[in-house]
Amino acid sequence: MALRVGCVAPPGRALENKTGAWRVFKPTFEPEKCTKCGMCAMVCPEGCVHETEEGTFEPDLDYCKGCGICAEVCPKKCIRMEKEEK
Amino acid sequence: MAEVEQGCALFSAGHRACGGCGPALAARLLLKATGKNVIIAAATGCMEVFSTPYPETAWGVPWIHSLFENPAAVASGIEASLKRQGRSEKVVCIGGDGATLDIGMLCISGAFERGHDITYVCYDNEAYMNTGIQRSGATPYGASTTTSPAGKCSPGNVHQKKDMPAILAAHGAPYVATASIAYPNDFVQKVERAINTPGPCYIQVHTPCCTGWGFESGETLAMGKLAIETGLWVNYEMVDGAVEKVKKVKRKPVEEYLSKQKRFRHLFKPARRDDEIAKIQAIADANAERFGIDIKRKEPSE
Amino acid sequence: MLEFMEGSHAVAEIVKRCRPQVIAAYPITPQTHIVEDLAQMVANCEIDAEYITVESEFSALSACLGASAAGSRVYSATTSQGLALMFEVCFNVAGMRQPIVMTIANRSLGAPLSIWNDQQDSISLRDSGWLQFYAEDNQEAADLHMIAYRVCEDHDILLPAFVCFDGFILSHTYEPVSLPTQEEVDAYLPAFNPYQRLDAEAPLSFGMYATPEYYMEFRYEVDRAMHRAGEAFAKAGRAFGEQFGRDYSDPVEGYRLEDAETVLVAMGSICGTIKDAVDEMREHGRKVGLLKIRMFRPFPAREIADALEGASTVAVLDRNISLGCGGAVGTEVKAALQGSGAAVYDYIIALGGRDVRKRDIAAVVDLAEKGKGDMFYGLRTEVL
């Protein structure tokens, strides 16, 4: 694809970089204990924790780097970080 | 949770920040506060590098990076141009502590002295992180960095943290605030206030760096909370130069914070450096005194 | 209609008519009269522009960059130490393809500190991707600003430009200048129409970083644009001639070259002196001429080689020096004339404001015809 003048780019192409491949630890969300506070979605540095139809939350594993911040802040401790089997 | 979704869209996933990156979270929260009607002027540094390797930009708002030290000057020009064109976008600078406190002093001082209607957000991870963890004017006393390493005859960084909020308040900035990603809603509210206050406003947001400070990536917000609880970071606002809305804490000893980070490990291993830890405690105590952060316990007779 | 005015004032009057929306400049001798005149015009509401009194030249060009990227035509002016301070931003502006036009009131670089004229400052940035034009007199200085904006803003070009005129010699001298009306300038230079801009309705990321996978191609694109700028200048210069009667369709201007055996090559105000010297030497039967270089970047190698085809001796006068090498113009002219068979010599002359007289020009011609060159001309040997 031809270069854009001045090293300029429109939004969107960062999404081509699937950072989920970086992961060592994988989060597992337990919706039964979730109080729907939304903290996990607010504090994810990737912005890849999304609300489900039920109002609970789930990670987008294409981008989740497994950092564990969501698990640490969750007031109900209903997010578990486990070593991922590749 | 539509706001949260919008935050995602304006700063997308796929960026190359370390897992658990404090500044990456700060970027998302910043855009949650500004919404899409904003133009960002960014400095060279971690946030710029991890978010814009051509052509993979993570930014969903207009964004410009020129050099390391000049976002405040670039923003001055953008603001002037928008004024002439009658446009409404907010102009927000974002730079790390290196770009802001050190190499960018010239441009930020000039922009604030001239009173441009801009907001400058400094994400403070307390060193030049993108180039490999070298000390900056924001590196706290006693921290080991690659250019202020702890060694046989050095306790690490021997300089005090530059008081940038005070410097910019002295320029006549109508609103100056410190914040932390450990209190994300507070940071978002402060950004909202800053962009809606006419004139040059400044927010320095504490963004712990797991890679540079040496702690597990999941502890980023916990570390930010401990910084505040020990008094080594104070969250406050300055309105027309007067301090207000200081976050009060039930103070913990600084050792609880220092012992959890590799950059302070030399204070504990191979031997405890109680003299150095005491100096750092004194800094926290001085902050507590200056800003009044200690929650006073009520005496039974009151 | 001709008006008698100071060079700086002529530049300010033309810049006003070019309708910049944002002006960001830092005062420095000998450019000060330009920025002071513009400040007064803004204060009198004669220009519809924001005037940012920046805290340094580094900030001046950074502010211009921001304003340009946001969609405004911008202007700045500097010289010498100020331009040197802008070094980093200059490369940045060209790489970001912002069409900024900046006046350079040429002045020597310290150390030692000197406020007087030579062309070291702009010449030292010849690698930066900025177009470079050199004015012989104040009329050219004024005209070149209009042409520069038009060339720079062409969507096929999108490069910044230095319009250079010799400090004090032109900036502070009074000459008759014909200033166009606002309507005439508007007809020649339409409103700024940015190729792309910072805009919340159509967000873009400007100034991303390029890995080794992309960097070379971006630099190649800038180089290609610079080469296209030569043609764009010729086209814009011809249109200027059709509208105003002064033709600028050539990046070089020959003076009495037709049967010249020895040709002097130079840039800037020294060309005025050289033309008078050439006339005198011609009266004494010497077959001499002048090739004035008006556009130094992109370097008009082909036009120079074509113009100098008949010359057997070429004497390049350099008001600059690449220390440890030689004069920049001389070095590049020699490269352009490789294989031509002409004897090409380089003379470092008139640095730091030292005066040049017609007899100095004649002396250089003598030296060149005797085969003596590649030297400093006019050193005060008594102080060495």
TrEMBL record, chain A:
Gene3D superfamilies: 3.30.70.20
Cofactor(s) this protein requires: [4Fe-4S] cluster
Domain of life: Archaea
A molecular function GO annotation: metal ion binding
Keywords, comma-separated and alphabetical: 4Fe-4S, Electron transport, Iron, Iron-sulfur, Metal-binding, Repeat, Transport
Matching Pfam families: Fer4_21 (PF14697)
Iron-sulfur recorded as keyword: yes
4Fe-4S ferredoxin-type domain residues: 25-54, 55-84
Keyword Iron-sulfur tagged: yes
InterPro entries: 4Fe4S_Fe-S-bd (IPR017896), 4Fe4S_Fe_S_CS (IPR017900), PorD_KorD (IPR011898)
Binding partners and assembly: Heterotetramer of one alpha, one beta, one delta and one gamma chain.
PANTHER family in the record: PYRUVATE SYNTHASE SUBUNIT PORD
Protein name (database record): 4Fe-4S binding protein
Automatic annotation (TrEMBL), chain B:
Domain named Thiamine pyrophosphate enzyme TPP-binding: residues: 44-205
Superkingdom as given in the UniProt entry: Archaea
InterPro entries: PorB-like (IPR051479), THDP-binding (IPR029061), TPP_enzyme_TPP-bd (IPR011766)
Keywords: Oxidoreductase
A biological process from GO: organic acid metabolic process
Gene Ontology molecular functions: oxidoreductase activity
Keyword Transport: no
Subunit-structure text: Heterotetramer of one alpha, one beta, one delta and one gamma chain.
Protein name: Thiamine pyrophosphate-dependent enzyme
Naturally occurring in which organism (per UniProt): Methanoculleus palmolei
Species classification: Archaea, Methanobacteriati, Methanobacteriota, Stenosarchaea group, Methanomicrobia
Automatic annotation (TrEMBL), chain C:
GO BP annotations, alphabetical order: carboxylic acid metabolic process; sulfur compound biosynthetic process
Ranges where the Pyruvate:ferredoxin oxidoreductase core domain occurs: 260-361
InterPro entries on file: PFOR_II, Pyruvate:ferred/Flavod_OxRd, Pyrv_Fd/Flavodoxin_OxRdtase_N, THDP-binding, Transketo_C/PFOR_II
Pyruvate flavodoxin/ferredoxin oxidoreductase pyrimidine binding domain mapped to chain residues: 15-234
CDD domains in UniProt: TPP_PYR_PFOR_IOR-alpha_like
Single GO MF descriptor: oxidoreductase activity, acting on the aldehyde or oxo group of donors
SUPFAM superfamilies reported in the protein's UniProt record: Thiamin diphosphate-binding fold (THDP-binding), TK C-terminal domain-like
Keyword Lipoprotein: no
Keywords: Oxidoreductase, Pyruvate
UniProt keyword annotation of NAD present: no
Residue stretches spanning the membrane: none
PANTHER family, per the entry: PYRUVATE-FLAVODOXIN OXIDOREDUCTASE-RELATED
Protein name: Pyruvate ferredoxin oxidoreductase
Organism: Methanoculleus palmolei
